[in-house]
Amino acid sequence: MLKNKIYKYLFSEIFKNFITILLTFTAIAWTVRAVNFLDLMIEDGYTASVYFKYSVLNISTIVSRFVPLSFLLSLIISITKFERQQELMILWTVGQNKIKVANIFLLIGFFIALLQIILSLIINPFTLNKSRSLLRETEIGQISSMLRANDFTDAFDGVTFHIGEKSRNNKLTNVFIRDNSGSLTTIVNTSKGKSNTTIMAKKGFVEEKKIILFDGVIQTLNNDNEIQNMYFEKTELNASKFQNRTIKQPKIQETSSLSLFQCMVKKNSNIVLLNCPFQKEKGIVIETIMRRVGLPLYIPLISVIGSFLLIYKKEKKYNYLKKYVVFGFAFIILIFAEIFLKFTGFSLINLSLYLFSPLILFIILYALLLKNVTSERLLK
Q1: DSSP per-residue codes, 165-178
Q2: How far is CA 335 from CA 225, 287, 341, 342, 367, in A?
Q3: 241, 261, 279 — which closes off a domain?
Q4: Please, are residues 307 and 301 in contact by the beta-carbon 8 Å criterion?
């Protein structure tokens, strides 16, 4: 009964530290990223609610990025705290086995690795795809916020604006519009399908999703490549036809894991992609899959490395430095995992090495930990 309470205490303390560190890193990174997302309102004209929803949907990807480092820090901090408060000494005095305590750390590592896999494999692609769908299905909100005085605005796909002056009540002066997308051809019948249209107006104003222009000219290019002019006193443009330049097609990171797995096929000691929308990006596809499945395998390895803090040396200076040595070694492993991840798509050998490296290191280090614990007990 006592042992169960001790194990629960160790588990809860490490897990609480892990959650605290993870949330701290996530809050800082999300704040920075949310600032970058402000372009959705300023440049692309989306509403504040769309901006907020899009930012929130990106939180899970930030969380998964910091899971390995947060676990490493929580493990080091927790063990150091247990040692400083003499809690570990009490455990050894009452006959607790260090390997059993190390196994608790390992159990936590496996639990967090599972959490990381669920995040990376299922939740992240879903939320990222949901955020992309949000932009794809939402119409442009504030047209006026995208138009700036004395500046060319190319936030719309194929349409460029230049406004001479702009007042606070959205009144425009010296308006120039260049359309290469065909969004404005319907206002001139003589265009006959031509997509080159230029509009110049002395003044105008923005009203919701409409642009009202006065005293101007519309220049279009007909099928004979002749420029035709049509003068107007007043005309109205429907801005809902404009498409902004925001990428709306799902990226690899936003594609479901099942879809990526289905297009990977082993052929002649290599991996090829069949029926894959990212046919020309095989390396990135494999890298994405390994980030979702392979990278979490390094988390239990961090548990074994952290367990070496339970080993005491006769020289006190080594006991003082061991936490820095353990942290440095584990941190190098995480850096190696991130760097080597970029090469997994080059060949099947690289892919196999990335998957089996944590398993091999885990076996070696766990055997070394057992040997050190056994030697320490014999010396006593």
Answers
A1: EE-TT-EEEEEEEE
A2: 59, 15, 10, 12, 24
A3: 241
A4: no
Tell me 311's DSSP state. -
Please write the tens of the pLDDT for every residue from 274-333. Answer: 556 666 677 788 888 888 888 999 999 999 999 988 887 555 555 667 888 889 999 999
Q: Look up residue 84 and give its amino acid.
A: R
* 94 vs 84, more confident: 84
Burial of 298 (0-12, 13-18, 19+ CB in 10 A): buried
Judge contact between 177 and 199, C-beta under 8 A.
yes
How many domains does the chain divide into? 2
| CA 317/CA 213 separation, integer angstroms | 79
Query: At 242, is the secondary structure helix, strand, or coil?
Result: coil
The edge-to-edge listing of strands for the beta sheet with 227-238 is 151-156, 159-166, 171-179, 197-207, 210-221, 227-238
For residue 87, count other CB atoms closer than 10 A to its CB. Answer: 15
φ, ψ at 110 (rounded to 5°) = -65, -40
The answer to whether 147 and 272 are in contact (CB under 8 A) is: no
Confidence of residue 108 (pLDDT cuts 50, 70, 90): very high
Instruction: Give the total residue count for the chain.
Output: 380
**By CB neighbour count within 10 A (0-12 exposed, 13-18 middle, 19+ buried), where does 169 fall?**
exposed
**Which two structure tokens, joined as six digits, stand for 203?**
């003044």
Q: What pTM, to 2 d.p., does this model score? A: 0.77
In terms of Cα–Cα distance, which of 272, 295, 296 is closest to 341? 295
Range of the domain at 210: 146-241
134 lies in the same domain as 172: no
Helix axes 298-307, 348-379, angle to 10 degrees: 20
Q: What is the DSSP letter of 267?
A: -
Closest to 68 (Cα-Cα) out of 125, 18, 20, 28: 18
Residue 288 CA to residue 295 CA, distance in Å, equals 10
Same structural domain for residues 271 and 320? Answer: yes
Examine the fold and report which residue of 210, 241, 272 is the final residue of a domain before the chain moves on: 241
**Coil, strand or helix: which one is 48?**
helix
